[in-house]
Amino acid sequence: MKLHLKIFAFILSLLGISLWVNIHFSGKAVTEAMSAQITDNAVTAAEDISGPLHKALQSRSELEAIKALHLFEQKTGALYAAIIATDSTIIAHTNVALTGTRLQSPLMRRTAQTSAPQFRREVYKGEETVEVLLPLKAQARPSNEDILFEGLGGGGAAAGFLQAALPLTQAKKAEQNIIFRLLLIAVLISIAALALSAIFVRIIMGQLNQLRDGIRKVRDGNYDVLVPVITGDELGDVAVSFNKLAKGLAETTVSKQYLDSILESMPDPLIITDEEGSILKANMAAYAFSGYDFMPPASMNIKDLLEPQADGGVAPFSLLSWTGHTKEMDLLFKSEDGRRIPVMLSAAFTGGTGRREAVIVLKDTTQHRQSEAKLTQYLKEVETVNSELDAFAHTVSHDLKEPLRGIEMFSNILISDFSKKLDPQAADYLSRISKAAGRMRRLIDDLLSYARVARVRNPYEDASTAQLAAEAVASLAATVEEHKAVVDLKEGLPSLFCDPVKVRQVFQNLIANAIKYNTSGDPRIQVAAEKFGDYYWKFSVADNGIGIPSQYYEDIFKMFKRLHSRQEFGGGTGAGLTIVKKIVEEHAGKVWVESKEGEGSVFYFIIPADLRNKP
Amino acid sequence: MSPSFNQFEEPLKAAGQALGIEVSVVKVSDSEDLPALLRQVNGNADALWLPPDPLLISPENLMMLRDFSWANGIPFYGSTKGMTREGAAASVGVSFGDMGATAAEAARRLQAGENLPELIFPARMELTLNASAARKCGLKFQPEILKKANYLFP
Asked: B22: distance to nearest CA of chain A, Å?
């Protein structure tokens, strides 16, 4: 039932009850008043004929009494009248058949007790009457005390009683007239109350209807709602609060239409299911991808559409139910045309217990898998080519060294054994040939070293970098001694899962460079390490050398790149840092330098703490 | 009824018998005896008929009869319109006007030297009904009676 009908039903019930109570009790009061009035009239009439009444009472003469009763009848219109003795015996009755019988009336006892007129409503011969019983006081001579308290005396005891049935015909008309008027007033008041109630209900319902429409809009996801505030009462307060709520929602909550538009515009298939996997909603991409229209909601189950890629795998939705979410799970999706499409599934449950829904995003991995296969193929080909190149470089370098060694050796023999016979100019040329051959040999050696770094795969193992650094310093003992260098290996150099031979080479090359490119006369090198994030160690090799101009921070790691002439700083080939970079990158790390010219340089490199556990 | 009505006793009984009505005569020697006599017939009579006897015709007696009749449902019938008005269910009798006219006619005829019987009666009889009294006694007038009635008190 509608609220306004309930309110009307309530008001009508209230009015009905009020009307009934009003009419009932008003009628009762009027009836009582009318009966009392009739009784008063009877008392007056009895007083008017008190002489004949007392005479009849004293004489006990029936005829005298009947005469008195007839007088009473004529005065009051009584339907019957009787004179009763104190012992309830009827002395005389207008219905002479009852004379001598005993009066059976409930009024008798009350009148005897109170000595006051009593009355009650009674139906006599089908006619409603007021039965009155009036005490007839004995006409005794007043005592002195009665005279003293004249006006205050209560009168004597009843010598008998006058009973009569007085018609209500006229009184009834007046009574009905009064009750009708009361009813009319009550009906008018009720109509007015109903009209006011209707206006009141209309105002309330108007506000409530506005609120209901607003709530419907918010429920449908439209938060841009402003409910008119019609009343200034609590309902108005509710409307104001609702408007604030809607405004707050509009400011803080993404609307349903907005979310729907996002879902529909998603390029990847998105499916929403209930806790059991029944598909409740899907976006356009899902329709296009699968061929299903997923209608009506809950007519399909995602469990029937997903298969693990390997036989015996865990049912995907069961896994999702256990974990609550899953990410990038490779599965097969059964499309409407029967194809098994490889997909990557990411999903999570939303909502509370018992109302959980799974939001599932699928990604078609068909092209991804094809690309991955191609990439794997390309990588294999590149590795093969690289291996062949390394082998080729090693072979070429090794083969080149042989004739160079001959050129250098025979040039040196000519210089040492035939220098006196040679023209000074020829000896100079011969010396230059020997030096060039030596330089070319070193270049080839470095090239071989670089090729070896790429080609040789030493087994990875847990190794102490402190020990590797110490071994590198030991291998450079002659250089250290020659330059009177001080190499400080700080505490805390960690253990790494690495190729120890190559990492030792990194320390060796960096320390060697730090000693070599130093003109201070007091070379100081410091090797340290610290944690770099959760996964890496950052090593540093700091020196007080000549420093490196910032524009060369990248170039110095290129093959055979030198910043100085071949005559300066021992005439290196410029392959050391290239080898360092190659080794660090092979360990999934990175190397860089920070430097100030004339003050020194710091070479940093980071290496994962444990390559077995990639982040 | 007073002793002067003794001559009517037998004709009344005969007339009643002819109609299937038992007529019992209650003789009233003093109107003070009326209440006791009414108590005596209460339960033994279906109706009362009050003859136009000056001994009984008084306002007090009529009221007494009326109250007794109405209270106990025993209709009483009178002999004049006035009795009907005072509470008798019905009356069959002669109006005072007719009686006067008949008396005047008798006087004129006597003066004219005619011989008249000892008793003369008005030629026209009058039926009056009291609907209220009849209702209180549980009676219902038949339509043919109502048609015959010369006067109906509501």
From this structure: 22
